[in-house]
Task: structure prediction
Amino acid sequence: MSLPEIKTSPLAGPVNSLWGVGGERAAQLARLGILTIEDLLLHAPRRYEDRRHFRKISELTKDEPFTARGTIVAQGLKRFRGGNKSVFEFILDDGSARLHCRWWNLPFIEKYFEVGDEVFVFGKLVETKPRTMDHPETEVIEGGEESFIHINRIAPVYPLTEGLPQRWLRGLIWRTLERFESQIAEPQVGRVTPCAPMVAAGKDRRAEDCAPYQSLPTRANAVRMIHFPEELTDVEIARRRLALDEFVELQIQIQSRRKKFEALSKALPCGGDNRLMKPFLAKLGFKLTEAQTKVLREIRADMGGAHPMRRLLQGDVGSGKTVVAACSALMASESGFNVALMAPTEILAEQHFRNFQKWFEPLGVKVELQTGSRKTSNAEHRTSNVERHLHAQPSTLFVGTHALFTAGFDLPKLGLVIIDEQHKFGVAQRETLVRKGNYPHLLVMTATPIPRTLGLTLYGDLDVSVIDEMPAGRGRVKTFIRTAEKLPKVWEFIREKISAGRQAYVVYPRVEEQDTANDIKAVTKEFENVQRALAPFKVGLLHGRVKSAEKESVMSAFRSNQIQALVATALIEVGVDVPNATVMLIENAERFGLAQLHQLRGRIGRGAHESFCILISDAKKPEARERLKILEETNDGFKIAEADLKLRGPGELLGREQSGMPKFRFGNLTEDLDLIRQARELVRQQS
Ligand code: ADP
Ligand code: MG
Result:
């Protein structure tokens, strides 16, 4: 990430152009991702050491790491087990007490120290009699003209790589700052620098828009402060300034991509005229919620507008996104265009296919299925379809998995692409998708509530609609956490519910993204246990390796209640809709993320009957139980996603498949919502 104007600045020069950086050092720096002078200046310390105040050795504790300073009064290397094992130890004295510092099986450490050396050590005690630290971080204090860089100040401690001394890197960064600080330019937002012109421009630019820059140090100051702060509180101020720059840069990319797209593309007129929508809604059997109607208005405005729609539809599991997708598809059909609906799994594609067929065929809209293993139309059929589509009615909805868009399947007259459960697809995939065809409108739907920070970065180039209301008459899902010990009781409870006519899911964790052979073995064994526990009721099994045809027959048996319970891996996470299923048992729940558990739980609570989700976990760690408790306490997907983001970070929340996650040196996606907002506003106002 480097700003355009910096490319021509001296900061873009390679690190080996710096005095004292030879080939070996340059290679070590490269391992840390430091190639240019700018990279070096932005290499953030991993911690700071206040070398103005030390803790006396006599005051060190086992609880918390501290820095002490003393003189080595003795040292030695001991070998044992025939010389295979060793311990090197020195004893440090600071006048208050003595401290033993040990390194196990690192005999070469010996050559770095000598009796009489003055040393900083950072660590916590492993023993108090005698006071001992194992493998502390150390730095020998050297005199000389540069010593002021390292002592009597708050000293930065950097991430290192093998062979690279802390002290050397700190010296290099200090000298580089001295030489280049004046060349660190303020970033350009659009064509002008952020603050001064905005203030000068007066009334149409609000003062708070440039407030972030006014209340923060200059970029050059911030870079110095992040390395050599005068007070520890300076560090966060500097970090915020540098994070803001990163967010601004990202917003410039996002917003210019969007602008380029709007300049290049002309929207297909897909606003529709209601002639299919009306009869569809009349026969649907329920009234749309206000939230659904509001979202549809936004979609209609987009699809009848000047630029192709690029919209993200967020709605918690069960909020009714499918019907919104259907209505959007009908708008395009009414306008004479075809529609593609892409689902992340075959099961979900099949389910959509069945639903849409039921809804659309009476209206004269054809529905076709295209997955890896099934096509409803063969090649010849397709040719004739193409002809038919080119010549007029009726329009077609193509439903499929990503297979829909591979293998050269070119969809004719495509007006709208709908991607269901977007978080399962990468950003890159999304882009290739909509490049097919003549800039069709794009609607991506997700049930993973995306915290605002991510929404504004990862999905920054999409407009966002939210269905923030559940259809009426839904029974709340009650969630309980139980230990495995309680399983017999839980089975009894499930049998009761099945006897009363309901159905159940039993879910086992999927460790990898794909079901592995081991997972399959585990789930197959559990399947037998569940069959025994629930006999004579019928139980089905579903996992990633089950053949498509069988998958379909198991799902259809479950749907029609010929099977009362379904044992599955997390494969059923997305989209499956069987309203009579009201109980879900999730084993080893601690192995799932919260957002994923919430998704899973969204499979129940879809009908009028009360639903129960039982999380089985023997996790000993209190954190793990605390985490699961959040699910007991709330059904609000947004709260859960925020918690998940805080606890596990954005990568985990959105799934490993998610590519295109921006990398920040200073920006923090869990904490910096205010900065992200400010950056977006700044860039918007300036361009
Ligand atoms: P999701 O948003 O998770 O994809 P679905 O679209 O699968 O949710 O909808 C969940 C269930 O709610 C479906 O059975 C659907 O028919 C039903 N549903 C959708 N909208 C409404 C509504 N306005 N009133 C009543 N039921 C609805
Ligand atoms: Mg859905």
